[in-house]
UniProtKB/TrEMBL annotation:
Pfam families in the record: TFIIB (PF00382)
Gene source species: viral metagenome
Protein name: Cyclin-like domain-containing protein
Domain Cyclin-like: 162-254, 267-350
One annotated Gene Ontology cellular component of this protein: transcription preinitiation complex
Any one GO molecular function term: TBP-class protein binding
InterPro entries listed in its UniProt record: Cyclin-like_dom (IPR013763), Cyclin-like_sf (IPR036915), TFIIB (IPR000812), TFIIB_cyclin (IPR013150)
Amino acid sequence: MEEVQKLHITPQSKTQKVRRNLNLQEKARLWAILDEEKETSKQDTLEKIYTIEETEFCTKCNQLLVYSEEGFPCCRNKNCGFMSQYTLDYSPEWRYFVNDQKANNPNTSRCGNPIDPLLEESSYACKIFCSNGSSNEMKNLRRWSKWHSMPHKEKMLHEEFQLIGTYATNSGIPKIFIDHAKVIYKDLYEQKNFRGMKRDAIRAACIWIACWQNGCPRTPNEIADVFHIDRNSASLGCSSAEQLLQSHERTMDPEDKLQLCALTPSSFIDRFSSKLELSQEQALLAKFVAAQVEKRQLIPDNRPQAIAAGILYLISIHCHLGYSKGDIKSRLGDEASEVTINKCFKKLNEMHKEILPSWVHKKYKKTDVKKI
């Protein structure tokens, strides 16, 4: 029978830790266990840590590397063909500060609050949205947070940027054009030289310049339809904005100045073909004819949009589409008058055997143009 030593527990000693005195044998056993753990930890294989560095040469044969479609660096040497399984991710790690992104979530990113480079002093850390049925207190909170989040100057710019983005997005203009238009509007806004002009015309002019700089020119009439303003105001705003930018860029280098693309009939063929609901074959035929006109420099006296309208009317006659000059004028938004379309058509029809492919005459029967 083992003797069990009973301790006398007092109310003060309930929470006290009873220290046990170990003998020499128990201490030696504990030290032996500790030594065994140290030896086994030394024998374990260490985890290999690879340092990935961006290099242009293969680590096997020292040949140049090329990047595949998947983004992996591959060796150009046919005898080697080494492909690295590691890539450097250059994309940003965004964070939206939502409730599901906690400390234990591995998907949390390291980016800060969203910022706008055009609005340097503004903060987008917190926004309050209200519906029509919200209380007056919530509406006041939204107004106060908006006032304190950005200064008055940038608040006006922010409202203008929203209007430009709304009108342009509803008309199908790409986002890259919209961002470029915002940069142009900020440059014009900082000059403060467009007093007396309508702000709608300045917004339209910024979209007009952005489209021209990105190789997709639009006419002032098309931009006026986008912003629902008078066409005369749009034309005046486009010309004034171009002059202001050119005067502002006088001291810049030639490569940094405002450069607009060339205006050709091919610039309008795609949009005009879409408005006339032409098939893919007929749209390609219109592009081919426009390229022939540009290459041979035919009809230099008329505007490119009028020449494009004349090309479409030529295709409508020879392909029996049934569009009249009045239909083309109305569908294209009065870009050219019926008289101008008829003049361009007559000049093109005189050389239709040279600018139209041979399969057009074979596929479609000949049309008596004299009766038109």
